[in-house]
Design goal:
- By secondary structure, this protein is an alpha/beta fold.
- The protein has a single domain, classed as Spore Coat Polysaccharide Biosynthesis Protein SpsA, Chain A.
- The chain has seven helices and twelve strands.
Length: about 220
């Protein structure tokens, strides 16, 4: 069984909005609508688990899901940190063979990326899409002076869905709670305990909507 955990606990700080960014509209529909629809349309996904802040559960059910006629198998409360929300989602996905973990504000994930993530997770145990940065990347010191220019061909900007064998990522998340380490994504959780993560070709259109500029691009992609 393949389960998709959609983590939608973001706030509107960088967006500059009071409303949580996953509920902002693109072409008349909430961002979260497009995200969930992508997984609903994928025949290889059996189960969708939506993770939102506890105080937003009723709003999400009534104003986002019901009003837009989209269904998820489970909607559960997240934690104060992203890794806690993912762990809650993993517990709700018990019995899965493969689990996909996806940002709720990446609404334009393609069916190909979802299918590829499942295929590579089955093959390697852990996988994520990534794209080469378009800009030159610099390493800076505390005074903001450039100290190093990494080789761009060796860098990737990692996206979601990040896909794993369920037992692998569940055990890693269960153990990471007792570690004093800052976690930025789920591939990092897997790698921390010695697991290799296969990075496959992502898509530049698979954007994460975080800033007002991203909304402009999102409107264009939604219209397409």
């Amino acid at each position: 069984m393949v389960s998709a955990i959609v983590v939608a606990g973001g706030r509107g700080k960088r967006m500059g909005t009071v409303q949580s960014k996953q509920y902002l509209n693109l072409n008349g529909k909430p961002i979260l609508y497009y995200t969930i629809k992508s997984f609903l349309n994928c025949k290889l996904v059996d189960n969708i688990i939506l993770v939102v802040p506890f105080h937003e559960i009723d709003y999400c059910k009534n104003e986002i899901l019901n009003k837009n006629f989209i269904k998820v198998n489970k909607i559960i409360a997240g934690g104060s940190e992203r890794y806690e929300s993912v762990y809650n989602g993993l517990m709700a996905a018990e019995g899965s063979d493969i689990v996909l973990i996806h940002d709720g504000v990446r609404p334009f994930v393609s069916e190909k990326l979802i299918n590829d993530s499942i295929m590579y997770a089955k093959r390697y145990g852990a996988a994520a899409p990534g794209v080469m940065p378009k800009d030159t990347i610099k390493v800076i010191d505390k005074n903001r002076f450039s100290i190093q220019t990494p080789n761009r061909s060796e860098l990737v900007s990692v996206q979601t869905p990040q896909a794993f064998r369920y037992d692998l990522i569940y055990e890693c998340h269960k153990k990471i709670k007792n570690e004093d380490v800052e976690i930025t994504d789920d591939t990092m959780v897997a790698e921390y305990f010695g697991n290799n993560v296969y990075i496959y070709e992502g898509e530049y259109s698979n954007i994460k909507i975080t800033t007002p500029e991203d909304l402009i691009i999102g409107e264009y992609l939604a219209n397409k």
